[in-house]
Amino acid sequence: MFPKSVLITGSNRGIGLGLVKELLKISEIETIIAGARNPEAAKDLQSLSKDNSRLHILQIDVTDDNSLKNSVKKVEDFVGARGLNMLINNGGVLDAYRADGSPNKDIVMRTFEVNACGALLASQYFLPLLQKASVDSPGSDLSPGRACILNIGSDCSSQELNVNGFNDKIHLAYKMSKAAMLSFARSLVADFQNLDIKVLVTTIHPGWVITDMGGPDADITVEESTSAIVKSIGKLNESHNGGLFDRHLKEIPF
């Protein structure tokens, strides 16, 4: 079941922009909110919004509390009393950092701030709107049609694959941050169960994608990645709560 309303962070380019394009193809989705740190510079988003009344562009910086607070009010204006059905935490950074390189706390902390802390804070700030959608939905099953937090994670957060020497040597900080993202997703699931909050939380690895972050030698295009993710969104259910999956919903080991 697809959600009626979706908010995506980091929508100005790459996977985020690709998700916006694919979500616009789903007629059941009535409201798509594309978040970007600098909307004025997001020319592709601006162009899309001119032809799509369902698409709204929102200034949001997940590392800035004031920006998050202000964005909640604006999203509430877009979705109204029915609340927000789905938050996609897509915003992220990838800076080279390796064990045998020069120590650089700033790179490590910036990576954590955006990829892990920013996604967690966005989830918390928008939780009241997600809960509003959840409470107003019939039944008790977890689904994107009810309320869902979807993290765009990475297979490099898998400790099993990491122990086996998976991935390259330059993404130490990135791998740490994505492991932290997966950890908070699992923790949210446990806490939501204790608090009786009916919000599905899951994490999807988009694949190695040809973007500014993924580089030109990556395996798949943005369209190949995001079209699969959007198809998978329509299939999400309680069995995916707290898990790590690839874009086709094949489970990835922890």
Task: Identify the notable features of this structure and list them briefly.
alpha/beta; 254 residues; 7 strands; 7 helices; Rossmann fold; 13% strand; globular
State the helical fraction: 40-55%
By CATH, the superfamily comes out as NAD(P)-binding Rossmann-like Domain
Domain module count: 1
Alpha carbon gap, first and last residue: 27 Å
Number of E strands: 7
**Anisotropy-based shape:** globular
How does this structure look, described?
Belongs to the short-chain dehydrogenases/reductases (SDR) family. GO terms for molecular function: oxidoreductase activity. The protein is α/β, with parallel strands linked by helices. The protein has a single domain, classed as NAD(P)-binding Rossmann-like Domain (Rossmann fold, 3-Layer(aba) Sandwich), CATH 3.40.50. It is built from 7 helices and 7 strands, in the order βαβαβαβαβααβαβ. A 7-stranded parallel beta sheet has the order 3-2-1-4-5-6-7, with helices on both faces. β4, α4 and β5 form a beta-alpha-beta unit. α1 crosses α7, α3 packs parallel to α4 and α4 runs parallel beside α6. The radius of gyration is 17 Å and the shape is globular. The two termini are 27 Å apart. The mean pLDDT is 93.
